Amino acid sequence: MIGVIDYGCGNMGSIVNMLRRTGHTAGVIDSPEQVATAERLILPGVGAFDAGMHHLEERGWIEVLDHHVRQQGMPLLGICLGMQLLLSGSEEGRLPGLGWIDGMVVRFSNRNADGQARRVPHMGWNTVTPAAGSRLLADWTGNDAALPRFYFVHSYHAASVDPAAIAGTTRYGDETFTSVIESCNSATGTLMATQFHPEKSHKYGIALLQRFASLEAASST
Amino acid sequence: MSFSRVIPVLLLRRKGLVKTVRFREPSYVGDPINTVRIFNEKEVDELVFLDITCTRDGGEPQFDLIEQISRECFMPFAYGGGLRTLEQIQQVLARGAEKALINTAAFTTPELVTQAAERFGSQSIVVSIDVQQRRQGLLGGKRDEVIVGCGQQRTRSDPVDYARQMVERGAGELLLTSIDRDGTFTGYDLDLVRRVTDAVDVPVVACGGAGNLQHMVEAIDAGATGAGSGSVFVYQGAHRSVLINYPERAALDELFGHETMV
Questions:
Q1: What is the percentage of chain B residues whose pLDDT exceeds 70?
Q2: Where are the domains of chain A?
Q3: CATH 1.10.3210.10 fits A2-213, yes or no
Q4: Suppose B7 and one of A84, A154, B111, B228 were both cysteines; which one would form an S-S bond, judging by CB atoms 3.0 to 4.6 Å apart?
Q5: The whole model's pTM is what?
Q6: How far apart are the C-alpha atoms of A75 and B50, rounded to whole Å?
């Protein structure tokens, strides 16, 4: 079962529906005790960074996720705010992030380097360029493959991410930012994350979620 | 490569979808859930649902319908219509809409926009601005004015000033609709699009008047980040018979793909 974590930040319904449509068993998990019943997890999220961290803390998710994901190796996919929370912190808030992946969340500037205006939030469809070896983007890593496109809606993005964890990048204005993170080793467990919304990205999102659903977990420590 | 969004804007009236001309004469065009399924097949960029009964009736949004739409909708969608409180906006987002649109309440209680943006993030909050040419005073000339209450209530506000204020308040996107062009197939009010997009640094979706894809390209060239339309996607042919439709991806990519987006 793929457990979609409901910690009070955003909508689970469309993720569960898309997973079910692809033939996987999926359900909403709304208490930390249920984590043990899942084989893999999705951490969604919309809204402000501090609100997200606050909800995770208040409801006791952090220790449970740390145990199952980082120590036991249960694969986890963070989406949008769910990706940002995996990093060390954010310009948007004061609370530290989970810090499971090195990196900071920063706001898009309203100007490109040449002074030209850039509209923020970054809202709409954009392509993702896979890094070599990406597992989530494995359908599009061939030289001839057309780049996949996904739906983005965000004002903040990951920056100074641990280069080993960068699995995909996207260009907005004159800036290239990390849009996919993957880290599979005994220290992090099997952590995956996307800034975009695969559950709102038609066939590209379906293919990516399929990849996540069939991932082999990193060997547990 | 990024892509300017081409967005069907669908009007809900009770459980059905309708299309209007200049915000009047709503005629039935179909069932919302069936329409979402068709748009899934066609891999539509994004949808906007506007409930045109809510503001007038003062009733609650149709939360169950929003949830039903969300279950079927594998593309992002925004919902608007009668949203007046943070609780309603919270419900709309919790039921699965990516974005909540605020129209009349943004005028009557602008602090709602600020509070909603603080709580849910600017990227979730769209302010919907309806504009119509109105005579100013008994002897005055006509000029653009923001109209709220489903095209019924004058505000005396200039669209450009109003758009700026709404962005300062926290709106992460604007849906800019020309009432005069709605349902007319004559093209967007490009002057209005240009003036508003020049004044703000958030995405602006133009709406009202599109009759074909070329009109949409014009709106993007005028500065819009997205082009919305009802008519283009629910009618087809010279007789404008109801047919839910959306252009082929390849055609859209050629017209709306950019190496970089500003």
A1: 98
A2: 2-213
A3: no
A4: B228
A5: 0.93
A6: 39
